[in-house]
Amino acid sequence: MKRAVVFAHYDKYNIVDDYVTYYLSALKEIASEIVFVSCNRLADKSNLDVSYVIDEPHDEYDFGSYKRGYLYLKDRLNEFDELVFVNDSCFGPLQPLLPIFEQMEKQD
């Protein structure tokens, strides 16, 4: 299954914490493309192993980031089977995501 992920990020110091890069690495196992959207200009993007980064100030919280990621992917949505929206308020994952997504696919 081909998935795109839109990842909403916020950090008041404009940095990407280690727990976020850990989460992104786990998402890479289930996603063909990850669009990382931060609502601030990032001080350093070099540790982001994602498909595309949008870092522009906006005051629209996670849904504003989701909107920007969606608009970036909009013309290519037919390339994906699923579009997943996540944010950086989660610490983890504590288990691999792939078996969870495979189980969800079987339930279709």
Summary of the model, kept short:
The chain is of the alpha/beta class and 108 residues long. The chain is 30% helix and 21% strand.
| Strand line-up in the sheet with most strands | 3-2-1-4
Overall outline: globular
Mean pLDDT figure? 95
How many H/I helical runs?
Answer: 3
What does this structure look like?
Helix content is 30%, strand content 21%. The protein is of the alpha/beta class and 108 residues long. A four-stranded parallel beta sheet has the order 3-2-1-4, with helices on one face. It is globular. The two termini are 12 Å apart. The model has no long low-confidence stretch (mean pLDDT 95).
Topology summary:
Elements: E1 3-9, H1 18-27, E2 33-38, E3 52-55, H2 61-73, E4 82-87, H3 98-106
Parallel strand pairs: 1-2, 1-4, 2-3
List keywords for this structure.
four-stranded parallel β-sheet, 3 helices, 4 strands, alpha/beta, globular, 108 residues
